[in-house]
Amino acid sequence: MFPHLTRFNLRNWIDENRGDWGRRRVIWEDSDFIVFVTRGPNTRTDFHINPGDEIFYQLEGELNLHYLTPDNKPEVAVLKEGEMFLLPRFVPHSPRREDGSYTLVVERVRRPDEDDRFVWVCRSCTHQLYETTAHFNDPADAVAKAYEAMAEDETLRRCAQCGQTEPAVRSEGPAFVWRG
Ligand SMILES: [Zn+2]
Question: pTM value?
């Protein structure tokens, strides 16, 4: 993490750490903003519902930002290198990343009374299958536990509306940046 009032070269920083990036690297988090760079690929199927807005800036490769409209229709914003996107608060979204892609993400630090929600929906009809709530500063990882519960129990992945069963997906680790 970089100190405040310090400038640095984002491109050089990525180039210097490319071989060992992991999933994400935090630039700043002890401010009004959490700023990090995420690298693909990923396999997440959950939709995150953030009480704050999020900004995505695609640095390299492609990001397929799946989201649900207010009437629960699935949409995808495809971000190519150099493109950016502001996702309004409370829009369920599932960023799906191409291998080797890099995205700069800016989120707002949550207030103590705010919750993040994570929902899983049926791929065929977007009916909700499962939901969990997580507090940003809670060390227990509710999202990883939800993935485990669904992987173990097929009935949690079966759609009550159309009957389709989603495949089991294992968690990729902590949902929040400060722990990953
Ligand atoms: Zn369904």
Answer: 0.92
How far does the centroid of ligand 1 lie from the alpha carbon of residue 167, in Å? 13
Q: Tens place of pLDDT for every residue, the chain, 180 residues?
A: 888 888 889 999 999 999 999 889 999 988 999 999 999 999 889 999 999 999 999 999 999 999 999 999 999 999 999 999 999 999 999 999 999 999 999 999 999 899 999 999 999 999 999 999 998 767 668 888 999 999 999 999 999 999 999 999 887 777 776 543
Calculate how far, in angstroms, residue 25's C-alpha sits from the geometric centre of ligand 1.
Answer: 36
Class of domain 10-172: mainly beta
Q: How many Å lie between the centroid of ligand 1 and the Cα of residue 82?
A: 35
Cα 22 to ligand 1 centre (Å) = 34
Peptide bond preceding 167: is omega within 30 degrees of 0, i.e. cis?
A: no
Q: How many whole angstroms from its chain centre is CA 33?
A: 16
Domains of the chain, by residue range, sit at 10-172
CA of 121 to the centre of ligand 1 (A): 8
Nearest-10 Cα torsion for 22, 38, 63, 136: 120
* Span from the CA of 97 to the centroid of ligand 1 (angstroms): 24
Q: How far is the CA of 86 from the centre of ligand 1 (A)?
A: 29
